[in-house]
From TrEMBL:
Feature: compositional bias, Polar residues: 1-14, 52-62
Region (Disordered): 1-86
Biased composition (Low complexity): 63-80
GO cellular component: cytoplasm
Recorded family membership: Belongs to the TPRG1 family.
InterPro entries membership: hSac2 (IPR034753), Inositol_phosphatase (IPR022158), TPRG1-like (IPR040242)
UniProt-recorded name of the protein: HSac2 domain-containing protein
Residue ranges that the Swiss-Prot or TrEMBL entry lists as coiled coil: none
Xref: Pfam families: hSac2 (PF12456)
Superkingdom to which the source organism belongs: Eukaryota
Domain HSac2 positions: 95-249
Length: 301
């Protein structure tokens, strides 16, 4: 795939609905469901609770490209305790430099198809945790019908990876704390996030799991961007995965009314499993922040 400048861009195959089989797998935890019926009292259509989880907050402002939101968006998803990013650490991120994120979003919009994606509903800068437990900086664009993620090279200022998932294929969204398997030697992450699945309860194949470069894994896992740990940015929606989560379920609810009336997508509040047992490479990768474009004492990568 090439962008408007003729540069090569890695792209996964768009994810579309293959069949209408109801998914079988689920997380352990409280669940709620989104369907296509406007029968709720809240301001988001077709959202109904099942089980516990009545603290589900539906009053977050929309995402903004500004540095500070006008309303508090204190994190509903747990954050790493005691972590603080100083101004100098925060300014080392190239994504934080003036107009860098706005430029990334505009480049992503050039690659979108208005007939397929519809209108943009929100944009965020988040951390994606891949199936090998590696943390990577991603620009996230939510539209009427699509979830688009970009790997944007904030130094060279170009899109190097473009992924699109159609919202109507998503069957499960989980929110909660990340957990490793019981026999894992990995240190506790001590924070949470969300996981978006379109696998209908089926696990990835062995070949997918053991390929660190696989781009066809049927789920995405996100958490807050590290910039949110700067005291000046804790209220900024752009880096807040909670704000993205709230907007995402509203868009899924709307598209289900049109594409899959009568069907439901499950939203689960509970632990999110990261299948990593003794991955030294991911520990080194994450500790050094290699998934983020930064100025590292004069070395920029």
């Amino acid at each position: 795939m090439a962008n408007t400048n003729g540069e090569n861009v890695i792209s996964t195959q768009d994810v579309h609905l293959e069949d209408d089989r109801q998914h079988q797998g689920s997380f352990s935890g409280a669940t709620l469901q989104i369907d296509g019926v406007d029968n709720q009292n809240g301001d988001e259509p077709g959202v109904g609770f099942r089980g516990s989880g009545q603290n589900f907050n539906r009053n977050r402002p929309g995402s903004t490209m500004s540095r500070q939101s006008v309303r508090s968006t204190s994190s509903r998803t747990s954050m790493r305790p005691g972590v603080v990013k100083s101004d100098s650490m925060t300014s080392s991120y190239f994504s934080y430099k003036e107009d860098s994120l706005q430029l990334a979003v505009e480049e992503g919009k050039k690659m979108m198809n208005p007939d397929v994606d519809g209108e943009v509903k929100g944009t965020w800068l988040l951390t994606e945790i891949d199936h090998w437990n590696n943390e990577k900086e991603r620009v996230v664009i939510l539209t009427d019908t699509s979830l688009i993620t970009l790997k944007y090279h904030f130094i060279l200022k170009r899109v190097v990876e473009f992924r699109r998932v159609m919202l109507h294929v998503i069957d499960t969204v989980a929110v909660g704390d990340f957990r490793y398997p019981d026999k894992s030697l990995m240190p506790d992450r001590r924070h949470g996030g969300i996981q978006i699945r379109w696998n209908k309860g089926e696990e990835p194949t062995w070949a997918q799991k053991w390929n660190p470069f696989c781009l066809t894994i049927p789920f995405m896992t996100f958490c807050h961007h590290p910039i949110i740990y700067n005291p000046k940015e804790t209220e900024t929606t752009t880096y807040n995965v909670d704000d993205f989560f709230e907007s995402l379920i509203q868009c899924i609810s709307n598209i289900y009314k049109k594409k899959r009336p009568g069907e439901k997508v499950t939203i689960i509040e509970g632990p999110i499993m990261i299948e990593s047992y003794a991955n030294l490479s991911s520990m080194l990768f994450n500790d050094s922040g290699l998934g983020f474009f930064r100025d590292r004492n004069g070395l920029c990568y």
